[in-house]
Each structure stands twice: as C-alpha cells, then as structure tokens.
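Hey all, quick one. A colleague (J.T.) asked me to put the UAG job into the tracker so the inputs and the structure tokens live in one place instead of scattered across chat threads. No bug as far as I know, just bookkeeping. Sequence used:
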Amino acid sequence: MAKNLQELVALMPGCEVRGDINLTITAVTYDSRQAKPGSLFICLTGSKVDGHDYIAQARAGGAVAVLVEKEVSVEPGMTVIKVSDTRAAMQAITPFFFDYPSQKLRVIGVTGTNGKTTTTHLIRSILMQAGYKVGLIGTIHTLIGDRTLPVKNTTPDVVDLQGLLAEMVAAGMDYAVMEVSSHALALNRTAGCEFDIGVFTNITRDHLDFHITFENYIDAKAELFRLVGRPDNVKTGKSAVINTDDPAAAHMLREVTYRAITYGVQDGADLTARNINIQADGAKFEAVTTRGIIPLALQITGLFNVYNVLAAIGVALAEGIEPDVVKTALEAFRSVPGRFEIVDAGQPFTVIVDYAHTPDGLENILKTARQFAQRRIIAVFGCGGDRDRTKRPIMGRLAAEYADVVVATSDNPRTEDPVSILKEIEVGIREGLKPGKSYEVIVDRRQAIERALSLAEPQDIVIIAGKGHETYQILKDKTIPFDDREVAREIIREMR
Ligand SMILES: CC(=O)N[C@H]1[C@@H](OP(=O)(O)OP(=O)(O)OC[C@H]2O[C@@H](n3ccc(=O)[nH]c3=O)[C@H](O)[C@@H]2O)O[C@H](CO)[C@@H](O)[C@@H]1O[C@H](C)C(=O)N[C@@H](C)C(=O)N[C@H](CCC(=O)O)C(=O)O
Ligand SMILES: Nc1ncnc2c1ncn2[C@@H]1O[C@H](COP(=O)(O)OP(=O)(O)OP(=O)(O)O)[C@@H](O)[C@H]1O
Ligand SMILES: N[C@H](CCC[C@H](N)C(=O)O)C(=O)O
Ligand SMILES: [Mg+2]
C-alpha cells in the first residue's frame, strides 16, 4: 500500500503544510513505536499521553511526515502537516490510503452490550459452512483465513481497522464479521467502514464511565444502523438484524431505512424460538423462520445463547444461506474460548469460566447454571478498575441473590485500589444476601479461586466470572500472566 502525500493532503482541506509533500507514504500510524521507513506519523492527543511528544521516536523509526494539531518543531527533512483535528484527519485519509477495503468485502457489524463475540463467531461458522472465506475482528482475536492475530481493542481504531480489512481483501476473504463496540462508534473508529449488515444483540448497563448516560449509550449503538444506511454506502442487500425483546430495539429500528429482520423469543418477531430446552450440555429449540422451522440441538447452552444463535440465523437468512447449512454449522459449533468454558481436571464438581463482566451477563450465567445445578453454586467474580463503577454494587447484589456462596475478588484493577473496588461490590452483596448465607472477600484472585475450589463439594458448580479468555491481569504498575482456566486446573491438580 502506498500513496503520494499530495493525495492525502488533498483530503485535508485547509491544512497547513511545511516541507515537501511530493513524497511516497508507505504506511500510516498513530503509534511512534510502529513507525517504519516511509511512514506518516499521526499525532493524537490521548487520554494518557500526547502523541505530539513522540515525533522524534517516529522519526527514528523512519517516519517521513507528521500530521499534527499543535505547533511542533521537527528535524529538517521531515514534512509537517497541521490540521485542527488530527483524529478527524486520520479518519478522512485512512480509508483512502487502504483503497476503501470495506467496499470489497461484505461487512457484518455486531453491536450490543453482551453477546457480540459469541454472535460473530456463530456467524463466521455459518458463512464458512456455506463455503465463504470469512475474516473476524473482535475481543479475543482477529482471524484472517488460518491466521490468528492478537488484538488490543474489541474494535480497533481506524488505522488498524482499515489495515486489517485491507489484509482480508488481500487474503481473498468474502466477508468481514466484526464486533462494533460503543466506544468505537462514539469515537468514530469505524470511519470509512461500509457495512452491509448491522446486528443489535441487547443493551444493558455498562460503560457509563464513558457514555455518562444510558441514553447516550443507546444512541452510540444506534450509530451502527445510521452507518449501514448512509447514502454514500451504496452496497446492495443492506439489512438490520434486531433483537426486539430488548426495549431499546425501537431506537435502533428508527434508524433503519433498509430491510429489518427482527428476532426474539417473545411473539411478534420475524424470527423466534420455540420449545426451548436448556440443559447443561447444550440448548435445544426450534427456530421459526421465514424459510421454515429449523430444529436445533446445540452444544452451547443458556437462553442468552439462544438469542445469539437467533441473531446469527437472521444474518444467514439475510445473506440467502440455506437452512440446512445453517443447521449443520450451528450444531457443530462447540464454544467460544472463555464463554461458559468448562474446566475439567478430573474434579468431582463442575468448574465454569465465563466472561460475564456486566450485571446482565452475570445474572444470565448464574440463572443458566441454576437451571441445571444439582447442588450449590459458588461464584467467584470481581469488577474491572477504570471502568463503570455503577455496575459494581449491582453485580454484588446479583451474585448474592443467585449464588449459594460468593467469593468476591479482583478482576483487572488497573489504576484503581482493588480494596476500594471490592468495598463497592460488597455494598451490593450485603443487600442481596439472604439470612444464613455468607460471602468472602479475597483480594488476590488466585487465592479467591483456590478458596472457592476448596469449598466445592461433589456436584457443586463453581463459576469463575469476568475474565473468560483473558490470559493476563492488569494491575496498577504491571500486567501479569493470569488465566482463570489454567489457575483453576493447577489448583485442582495440587488439591489431589
Ligand atoms: C479510552 C480509550 O478508548 N483509549 C484508546 C485510545 O488511547 P488513548 O487516547 O488513551 O492513547 P494514549 O495512550 O494516551 O496515547 C496517545 C497517543 O500517543 C501514541 N503514543 C503513545 C506512546 C508512545 O510511545 N508512542 C505513541 O505514539 C499512542 O499511540 C496514541 O496515538 O486510543 C488507543 C488506540 O486506538 C486505544 O487502544 C485506547 O483504548 C484503550 C486501550 C482502552 O482500554 N479502551 C477501552 C475503554 C475500549 O475501547 N473498549 C472497547 C470495548 C468495550 C466492550 O467491548 O465492552 C473496545 O472497543 O475495545
Ligand atoms: N446475548 C446475551 N445476552 C446476555 N448475556 C450474554 C449474551 N451472550 C453472552 N452473554 C454473557 O456475556 C458474556 C460475554 O459474552 P460475549 O463475549 O459474547 O459478549 P461481548 O458483547 O463480546 O462482550 P465485550 O463487550 O466484552 O466484547 C458471556 O460470557 C455471557 O456471560
Ligand atoms: N471490553 C470490556 C471487557 C471487560 C473485561 C473485564 N475483565 C474488565 O477488565 O473489566 C471492557 O473493556 O470494559
Ligand atoms: Mg466481545
């Protein structure tokens, strides 16, 4: 990928130029550490540091030009382009730099508080079963063909996102299926991304630290449906797949000026589920669709996964995939890492690691376990630092209401004091605790898991929630390796 800097400058009307713009730009980056010979380094004023302070580092890496929104001094030979807003300029030039890759793929965006990762993986399985090549972008990883790439954000920023889509085009992908977080929509990380299908899973309390009000949060999600409908997105066969059991569905539907497919387990949706049977080893139900009834025996469980599966079926039907292909793919789908993942190290009780990190997620997972629990449910969980504080007491209350034994612990404390986070959770636990029940607070996550496992008796269920697939723990001054699944396995082996 290469462009002449003059072509990029033409996309930034009103910019001030200092130096030569007849230069070949071979890469764009907003991170000085990624700068290579021929790069344009975009300086962003961040929440932690200021990209304008890293120009020398970018220059050392080989950057030939810099895009700034502040006065800077640079070494001779480096071109400076000054705009009023570097983030907006980055959004304007990046899709062009990568030759508008989303126009060459069918792009499916999935938004919602919970279920995005699961639903994107389900959609990918169905599309692959139908014979398509499918790329995926989301919380756990980016998948391009048989390559797995690590990720920093659920939805990457515009440079990374457009770059990944371009790689998908180069690798011959037909589809890109991606999670679209509310942060990404609010920060316009999806600039230049032309979606074919938008999916709305649900919206419940989360991220109010960022969006401040629930209304803003809903409206950020609704942006996905405005993006699909943009008049300059000239794709054909645009659709919205919307969970109408969620009260915010109306807000999404208001934005839909193209085909809408509604789903839900309540009557009235285009796509529904009946005869739902939730068991420990999988959910069975009949999907009632416009293409007939699809009986399903899944290997994933929980009513919430019935919703995720309906969303995936909605996309498949919108894309004209045959019901028998949908059935084969869904029944073969085993699991998503860290989502209701069973840890079996030969212990006489069940251990489930799950990524529930919102009140709704935690309630769902505990309710699901309750549906087939033969004995007690022991819940280990915490709440992340530098994230929505309002969810802490609510998650505490829900854990106390639904579990028999609660061990509250740290999630990723980040820059916060883990003890203070736990105090906020504890307020809710006390509220939800029924007489005769108890809870424990153990700051160290390993010790908390150890305690929960030592309390477990045959046939109990231990649920370790919040970190799912994560293989690290983010503390104030460092990130340490930490994988709930590995830790649980090690402890069980040591207990023998
Ligand atoms: C609040 C937020 O969204 N922050 C994002 C933002 O970082 P920032 O503005 O704080 O950046 P910064 O660290 O201050 O750095 C400023 C600039 O200096 C540059 N820099 C920095 C250091 C250096 O040595 N050289 C250098 O050039 C940085 O690359 C950056 O351009 O821009 C970064 C690059 O795009 C993001 O990775 C980062 O996400 C952080 C990691 C984050 O935690 N975001 C969360 C809240 C988030 O976005 N979550 C949603 C998912 C939510 C969900 O699924 O529920 C997501 O989509 O991931
Ligand atoms: N449709 C759903 N409704 C409610 N809860 C769900 C749903 N699907 C999954 N969950 C719960 O939420 C957790 C996270 O699921 P998943 O990773 O699919 O969601 P996500 O939207 O990708 O999350 P994130 O915002 O972190 O990217 C699961 O481990 C499960 O506990
Ligand atoms: N995408 C979510 C993930 C939360 C996972 C949880 N383990 C935490 O660290 O809070 C977020 O960034 O808020
Ligand atoms: Mg996700």
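Adding what we noticed when we looked at it: The chain has a mean pLDDT of 96. The radius of gyration is 24 Å.
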